[in-house]
Design the sequence.
């Protein structure tokens, strides 16, 4: 319990300074938590909090990459499919071809990153709009993922793989949650304190100003799509561990959930403002909302309606606040 | 002046936004067949006044009369119906539609519930002919030159039977040829009895075309000249409200050491070819010419922003021909671009961030940076350049002059050897320009080789030691300061 509190403070210590522009979503998250605390008797417990963390791992890892893409004024519609492809590559290599996990995981991640490289080059070298380039990649990678097993799922991973998502080390962290937290922290630090991260804001603010200021816009753009696809692959590893199986239909419309988390977190779709701090809040809002609605036994269909309403609410509130100031 | 009755008369027009009064009772008469120049610095109230006349904004007090009858248009539509045509600075044409469709957009001629394409093209053709424009009305607007698009806007106003035209900076994007063509059409409209309100920052052309000059300052009419032929200095003094002792600082004497040399430079798009010149340490080198002469393309190529097909750029005798802005910046050759808002600053990012973007390498240690460090770095330059703003403030909130200082500051932190300024005072108030000129000359004084591109003749003449004149992508000649005046420059520019 003590470790738990300490961990949360450490986490908040990094999140809070990068909340510029995300105070609105943070207030929303707090209000939501307060409401659920009083509306249900199960919400406020360590056990439930850990459940929420477990449930947001896939979305969380993916949304960090999406934030960087949206920050430079781009979009990546392929992440859901790339995730499925990475999972199928992992399954094929390990279960069918007998490649050990220690090698199969890096290869699956490399396959994912390769998709980002192709998308990035299409966008920068051939001037294909990001929306079209990643729409095409979405279709291609989904098809490839299905081709590996002709649409069949793969099971039979080593037992420890699934344990990564189940065993709570120190009674607290599953390895999958730890992966997400590491991605959050590295993403935050990179975006706020690294040369390469600050440059993303300049590109999203005005790509021509950035180019004339001596920033290598093309290289940074390709890199961002590679990282986004790599993280989509990593979220695929997390999901594979949680499900203990892989299937090519995984991750359909996950790209839209990731975009929703980024937008709820206050990053502008036109680029240049926002950041990973806000996205973490956005991911938590979606996670807490789903968890809370389940606790309140709201039907899954109604949940979709409510999440849609929250997106509208978050964005209009932000726009309204900006206009007033 | 004339005994005819005015088309439009304004009496005591006031406008307030909340507690802020932007117009303090303006009187103005426009007679048929005259061109009245409306001049003033940014924020003097010109746009508010023309928006009131064109029905976009409602006055808080005062009266307007149109052809002797009370006039109070509720919206632009009502003003149009009366015969007021407003042509905005940014063209508002739909590129993918035909000329005829653009002319009649929103008020298509109909016949039994269907679009009467024949009548539409016929009437559009008549409007185009009246302006001496020889294009087919069914052609798409896309691909027409800016000058022709401008004329189509005017044709659009004329098919409304406009008696009064308001032209807001119509020549801002026009070349010399196109400007002259526009002026011929304005003369023609005058002779047909159309009244014209002409807003422009180009004072030379005001003298050429207007019959009367009205100068506004701080929301009031401060002076009126009954003729267009007024010395520019007199107009400027009326605009800024004080006498200008000194617009341009004295130039330092350049050294003999050549910093930058350009040899046989050509562009792949042929926008300039075979350009040769050199700039010495501590020299301000001006580049003059008409719009479309290839000046911007040339300096963008020198600074790596645009491609080069052949030729060399040498720095201290060593070839440094850049392939990208990164190359040029690494060699200390930097550009303050023509369009501040689209190329110079990120408007919705802070001043500190804007300065930081060009200096992240310097600010970061092993690739690590923080907002605090960027802020500290920027504050220093903000102070040194007298930027009126705080580091955390968005660049978009600054005046044009202060934005330009931010663009300069971001480069000067890198101690460049060559600074290229393209239209350094475009859109900047006359009163604020002299501080930009001071900065330019200060650069030369500390040994930088400076290149200034400008369409404003007085400006190039005022700050340059030597002036290269370009015409149609070629270098027409290089004039020494002693030989350069508006006549000699214009002679070369119009070859």
Sequence:
């Amino acid at each position: 319990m003590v470790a738990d509190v300490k961990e949360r403070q450490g986490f908040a210590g990094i999140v809070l300074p990068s909340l510029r522009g995300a105070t609105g979503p943070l207030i929303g998250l707090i209000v939501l938590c307060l409401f659920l605390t009083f509306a249900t008797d199960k919400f406020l417990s360590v056990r439930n909090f850990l459940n929420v963390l477990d449930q947001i791992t896939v979305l969380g890892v993916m949304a960090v990459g999406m934030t960087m893409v949206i920050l430079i004024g781009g979009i990546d519609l392929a992440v859901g499919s790339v995730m499925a492809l990475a999972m199928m590559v992992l399954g094929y290599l390990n279960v069918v071809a007998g490649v050990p996990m220690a090698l199969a995981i890096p290869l699956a991640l490399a396959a994912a990153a390769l998709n980002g490289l192709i998308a990035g080059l299409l966008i920068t070298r051939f001037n294909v709009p990001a929306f079209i380039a990643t729409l095409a990649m979405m279709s291609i990678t989904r098809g490839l993922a299905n081709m590996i097993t002709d649409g069949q799922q793969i099971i039979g991973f080593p037992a420890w793989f699934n344990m990564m998502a189940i065993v709570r080390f120190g009674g607290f962290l599953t390895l999958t949650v730890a992966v997400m937290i590491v991605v959050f922290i590295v993403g935050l630090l990179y975006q706020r304190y690294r040369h390469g991260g600050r440059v993303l804001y300049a590109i999203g603010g005005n790509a021509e100003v950035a180019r004339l200021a001596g920033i290598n816009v093309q290289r940074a753009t390709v890199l961002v799509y590679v990282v986004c696809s790599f993280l989509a692959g990593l979220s695929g590893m997390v999901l594979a561990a949680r499900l203990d199986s892989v299937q090519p239909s995984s991750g359909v419309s996950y790209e839209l959930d990731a975009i929703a988390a980024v937008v709820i977190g206050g990053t502008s779709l036109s680029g240049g403002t926002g950041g990973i701090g806000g996205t973490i809040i956005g991911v938590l809002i979606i996670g807490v909302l789903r968890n809370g609605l389940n606790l309140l036994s709201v039907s899954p269909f109604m949940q979709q309606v409510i999440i849609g309403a929250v997106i509208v609410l978050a964005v209009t509130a932000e726009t309204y606040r900006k206009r007033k100031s | 002046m004339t005994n005819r009755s005015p088309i439009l008369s304004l009496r005591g027009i006031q406008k307030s936004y909340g507690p802020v009064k932007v117009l303090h009772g303006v009187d103005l008469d426009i007679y048929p067949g005259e061109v009245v120049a409306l001049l003033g610095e940014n924020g003097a109230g010109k746009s508010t006044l023309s928006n009131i006349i064109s029905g976009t904004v409602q006055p808080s007090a005062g009266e307007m009369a149109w052809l002797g009858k009370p006039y109070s248009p509720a919206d632009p539509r009502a003003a149009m119906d009366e015969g007021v045509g407003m042509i905005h600075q940014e063209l508002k044409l739909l590129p993918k539609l035909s000329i005829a469709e653009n002319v009649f957009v929103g008020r298509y001629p109909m016949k039994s519930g269907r679009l009467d394409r024949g009548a539409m093209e016929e009437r559009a053709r008549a409007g185009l002919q009246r302006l001496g424009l020889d294009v087919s009305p069914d052609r798409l607007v896309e691909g027409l030159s800016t000058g022709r698009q401008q004329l189509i806007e005017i044709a659009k106003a004329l098919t409304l039977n406009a008696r009064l035209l308001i032209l807001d900076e119509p020549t801002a994007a026009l070349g010399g040829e196109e400007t002259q063509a526009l002026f011929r059409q304005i003369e023609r409209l005058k002779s047909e009895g159309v009244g014209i309100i002409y807003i422009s920052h180009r004072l030379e052309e005001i003298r050429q075309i207007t019959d009367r000059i009205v100068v506004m300052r701080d929301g009031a009419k401060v002076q009126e000249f009954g003729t267009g032929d007024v010395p520019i200095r007199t107009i400027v003094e009326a605009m800024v409200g004080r006498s200008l002792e000194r617009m341009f600082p004295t130039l330092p004497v350049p050294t003999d050491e050549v910093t930058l040399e350009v040899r046989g430079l050509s562009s792949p798009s042929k926008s300039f070819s075979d350009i040769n010149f050199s700039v010495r340490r501590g020299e301000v080198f001006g580049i003059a010419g008409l719009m479309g002469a290839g000046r911007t393309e040339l300096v963008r190529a020198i600074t790596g922003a645009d491609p080069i097909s052949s030729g060399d750029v040498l720095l201290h005798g060593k070839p440094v021909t850049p392939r990208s802005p990164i190359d040029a910046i690494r060699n200390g050759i930097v550009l303050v671009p023509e369009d501040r808002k689209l190329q110079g600053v990120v408007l919705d990012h802070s001043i500190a961030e804007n300065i930081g973007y060009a200096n992240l390498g310097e600010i970061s240690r092993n690739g690590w940076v923080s907002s605090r460090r960027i802020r500290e770095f920027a504050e220093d330059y903000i102070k040194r350049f007298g930027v009126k703003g705080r580091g955390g403030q968005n660049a978009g909130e600054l005046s044009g002059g202060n934005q330009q200082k931010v663009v300069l500051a971001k480069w000067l932190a890198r101690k460049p050897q060559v600074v290229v300024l393209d239209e350094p005072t475009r859109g900047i108030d006359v009163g604020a320009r002299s501080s930009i000129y001071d900065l330019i000359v200060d650069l030369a004084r500390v040994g930088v080789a400076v290149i200034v591109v400008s369409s404003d003749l007085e400006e190039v003449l005022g700050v340059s030691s030597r002036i290269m004149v370009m015409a149609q992508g070629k270098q027409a000649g290089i004039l020494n300061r002693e030989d350069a005046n508006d006549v000699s420059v214009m002679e070369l520019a119009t070859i």
Chain B has a mean pLDDT of 87.
